[in-house]
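During the no-cost extension, the postdoctoral fellow (Dr. R.K.) reprocessed legacy sequence entries with the updated structure-token encoder. One reprocessed record is reproduced below for audit purposes.
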Amino acid sequence: AQLERLDRFAAGFLRTGDRIVIGREDCCERTFTAARRVGAVTVYDLPIAHHATARRIRDSEQAQFPNVEINSDHWPTYARGRGLRKDRELGAATHVVAPSEFVRRGLCDVGLSSHRISVIPFGCDPRRPFVPYTDRKPLVLYAGHVSLRKGIPRLLRVWKKLGAYRTHTLRLIGKMMLAPKFLADYAGTYEHVPQVPRSDLWAHYAAAQVFVFPSACEGFALVQTEALSCGTPLIASSNTGADGFVTHGEEGLIYPHGEDDQLASHLERCLSNPRETAEMGRRAYDLAQRWGWPEYRAAFRGMVTDLLAKP
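Re-encoded structure tokens follow.
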């Protein structure tokens, strides 16, 4: 209701001569409609996967891993009316800006032309100091909800099968959402740290040799850019937003979501080849230096300028 009030409020300000309106999902249907009436360009900022993509992945993961969670309320859920409103917002948009190729592919799957989509990845933080590999612990880090959507059941299964817990620590930082009965099979193979302030995460990133992010559905998770900013290479699924930003084999390793054998292979590769992992960490840090929030804003301005220049 609050977003709808904001939408109505913003729509009342549109006047002939206004040239562009940028709207966030869930609060721009009326504003976009008013903008189109006065001839303005409408840009839809969609930071997450399309709801049809999220629903399809949710259903698949819950079918493969039943009863592993305390509850599943954290999954993106859309009542029919909300989904229809999102689709109307998308239909009223001249252009869509997405943070990743994963989001772009989902939009194309529901019929949106790729010419109407710009992918602009979120920025890194180049101010962070680089920590060399030799100063890091035998630690593989994950941060986020410890849940099915984030791919943690798959990660735990792979980690235990590899026996990697004998030489390295797998640290899971975040709210625990997996059922005790499921976790009992993995007792002693991982370390759980409850939620910590975001400002405290930097020390964890800087201590880890690798950041692993096996999520099933993201727009572009900021924990990945934060890890890169500390020179920590990624192992990430293709559904995390990293694919298309991180080059496989350069700043990290990307694998198709659901291909758990490849996740296992990538973990083993990083843990067994410290020199290669260290080189990926250096390239991860270099990427963060090249693409921060100033570069994100410059790319966004360039997109707006191009849209306004079109007849």
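The mean pLDDT is 94. The CA atoms of residues 170 and 190 lie 5 Å apart. The remaining legacy entries will be reprocessed before the final report is submitted.
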